[in-house]
Amino acid sequence: MSQINLRWEGRFGNQCMQYLHAKAYARHHGCELRVPKDRTDKVFVIPELEPEQDLPCVQDWDLYDRVDITIDGYALHQDAMTYTRKEAREWLRFRPEIQEKLDALPKHSDKLFHVRRGDYVWSDYILVSGASYINAARQFGYDPLEFDVIEEAKAEFRPQPFENALSFVPDFWRLMQAKILFRSNSTFPWVAALLGNAEHVYSPTVAGMKSAKQADLVGIPQDVPFVEGNWPAISWQHDHCTDLHVREELAFHPYPRDTTSG
Predict the structure, then answer these.
(1) Among residues 16, 22, 43, 167, which one has the fewest Cβ atoms lying within 10 Å of its Cβ?
(2) What's the Cα-to-Cα distance from 1 to each of 22, 31, 33, 76, rounded to whole Å?
(3) In whole angstroms, what is the distance from residue 221 CA to residue 233 CA?
(4) SS3 category, 131
(5) Mean pLDDT, range 177-194, rounded to an integer
(6) Which ranges in 126-212 belong to alpha helices (H)?
(7) 227 - beta bridge partners?
């Protein structure tokens, strides 16, 4: 049987998206998927075995039906949305011991702002200003004072008994449980919204904006508009970042084929 290896890039949200894409790709091509151990398999039930052999690395936007490869890349483009939302929820299920801890957490507000700034402050990442969240909430008819803020610097939402390496999991769970979510331009809340049951998700739109370096605004929050939906492109600075539309339960999205080889 042909094989697909997955190479992790980035952190938890990135890895979730990479896993979903690689799993769908391997299934579509009748291949065995091999997945390295990392923090993701400590949170979700990942049944695949680890890779045992080195295979050629291919970027996820350049696959063209190839097999016996290692898929590399962040899966942040529409051609990687080859799984449905129903499949994502089936494939990313919390490990029983994690779910038990999450179920025991206290309840909080179901209206949330997710802010991603502190750990990206020196990067090329576009930082969304606090005013953007407040203005967007008012635009869509909400009182901003009714919202809790979840951000990477707020440790009070990360209670024990989660080990330090998994201290982010309660934040992720709260985002999944939100009824009204204004997310950051980050894979972390994007995946939480994909797996959750929010009545309304609102996302910042950064398409067409200059990167933080290009605009000489590294580390400086910028005012950006929000739109309803979980589809706007996530601000990862590469040429293959697009809006991300995930189907609910429809047929498998075909992969692009290389039409130049005859």
Answers:
(1) 167
(2) 16, 6, 10, 28
(3) 18
(4) helix
(5) 95
(6) 130-139, 169-177, 187-195
(7) 203
